Amino acid sequence: MRGFLLEGVDGSGKTTLKDELIAEIKLLNPTMRIKYFHNGVYPSSDEALDAYLKQLEEAKNYDAVIWDRAHLSSYVYGAIFHADIPTHQKYQFVDARFAETTVLIHCKPPYMDAKANWMSRPHAELLDDKNHHRAVYDMFDYACQESVLKRISYDYTQINAGVVKAIAAIV
């Protein structure tokens, strides 16, 4: 199994990249079994980490797996929603488990583009406060740098389809 973990603030292009990756992977190999996990808010960071460990076990049954948010989001958003940051030891354990099979794709367009994209949406996402949006955008830099996962930065305002093809070819 090869995994792709898409992380970034609301409006950073994660879902669009997911759609493009799935289409490209299917084009390269129509019989490939692909699983997609979209994680939202969990009651606590520890419950979220347990859920991600279960997802990693389920992922073994697929050729390619795409996560739209996982443990890095729990770290970043946990402080805002729960005043709850996962225990460092458990967080590192989950990070190491992801690192065995998964590439981190930090979706990071320029902040004003991410903010405009987020504000243009008719539905609420994880955030509903402009001040929190900027703080989360900045916190993802720290969380992604601290992760042991191999990392690719993705900026939907600059990247062309050639990069999506290259990422999909990793499978």
Summarize the structure.
Helices cover 51% and strands 16% of the residues.
Could you explain how this protein is built, in words?
With 171 residues, the protein is an alpha/beta fold. The chain is 51% helix and 16% strand. It has seven helices and five strands, in the order E-H-E-H-E-H-H-E-H-H-E-H. The protein has helices at residues 14-28, 45-59, 71-81, 88-99, 111-119, 130-146, 161-168; strands at residues 2-7, 34-38, 64-68, 102-107, 150-154. Strands 2-3-1-4-5 form a five-stranded parallel β-sheet, sandwiched between helices. Helix 2 runs antiparallel to helix 3 (71-81). The longest helix is centred in the last third of the chain and has 17 residues, at 130-146. The radius of gyration is 15 Å and the shape is globular.
Give the helix/strand layout.
Layout: E1 2-7, H1 14-28, E2 34-38, H2 45-59, E3 64-68, H3 71-81, H4 88-99, E4 102-107, H5 111-119, H6 130-146, E5 150-154, H7 161-168
Parallel strand pairs: 1-3, 1-4, 2-3, 4-5
Helix pairs in contact: 1-7, 2-3, 2-4, 3-6
What is the structural class?
Answer: alpha/beta
Rg calculated over all Cα atoms: 15 Å
Sheet-strand content, in percent, reads 15-25%
Q: Note the quaternary state here.
A: single chain
Low-confidence segments, given as residue ranges, are none
User: What is the end-to-end distance?
Assistant: 8 Å
The number of E-state strands comes to: 5
Overall mean pLDDT stands at: 88
